[in-house]
Amino acid sequence: MARANSGTRRPKPNLLITGTPGTGKSTTASALAEATNCRHICVGDLVKEKNLHDGWDDQFESYVINEDLVCDELEDVMVGGGNIVDYHGCDFFPERWFDGVVVLQTENSVLYDRLTRRGYSGAKLSNNIECEIFQVMLEEARDSYREEIVIALQSDALEDVSNNVASLTGWIESWRP
């Protein structure tokens, strides 16, 4: 992963960890934040805690995120750097916020098992599996950010999480503003 831009003056980088639900975003982001002394921001939790949504979607059993409210809430925090943001979408965040974008990917049968254990079924399950099959999140990340700051990492097993955290920890520790 390359640096976002040479004008960045943050003491630590901001990293976005994205991917289809069930790919290990929160697990990876939490472990990485602990390893690097960065702040973990789980956007899904933030949306619930601060009511940054426009109601509930019964079909997908989730809140309808208000992207403008989320961005307003995070703007000042992101300027300081040292944030690891995890969310299953990425196209609404300002490009200037992130120095690296990680898209976690999971083999479809592994993802299917994870999501069914979470209680996903029907349209919610099939929609998320299709998103992974067609690499929707990777395409969204590449469309939203400079390609050199976007990296796809496999996240099928705990060993993958450990390897990803170690690799990303090295990247964060080598950061030079």
What would you call the shape? globular
Rounded to an integer in angstroms, the radius of gyration calculated over CA atoms is: 16 Å
Going by CATH, the architecture would be 3-Layer(aba) Sandwich
Strand content: 15-25%
Q: Any idea of the CATH class?
A: Alpha Beta
Number of helices: 7
Superfamily at the CATH H level? Answer: P-loop containing nucleotide triphosphate hydrolases
Overview of the molecule:
It catalyses: ATP + H2O = ADP + phosphate + H(+); AMP + ATP = 2 ADP. InterPro entries: Adenyl_kinase_AK6 (IPR020618), P-loop_NTPase (IPR027417). It comes from Brassica carinata (Ethiopian mustard). It is a single chain. The chain is of the alpha/beta class and 177 residues long. It has a single domain, classed as P-loop containing nucleotide triphosphate hydrolases (Rossmann fold, 3-Layer(aba) Sandwich). Helices cover 45% and strands 19% of the residues. The chain has seven helices and seven strands. The protein has helices spanning 25-36, 43-50, 67-79, 108-117, 122-133, 136-144, 158-173, and strands at residues 15-19, 39-42, 53-57, 62-65, 83-86, 100-105, 150-154. It has a five-stranded parallel sheet, sandwiched between helices. Strands 3-4 form a two-stranded antiparallel sheet. Strand 3 and strand 4 (62-65) form a beta hairpin. Helix 1 (25-36) crosses helix 7. The longest helix is centred in the last third of the chain and has 16 residues, at 158-173. The protein is globular, with a radius of gyration of 16 Å. The two termini are 15 Å apart. The mean pLDDT is 94.
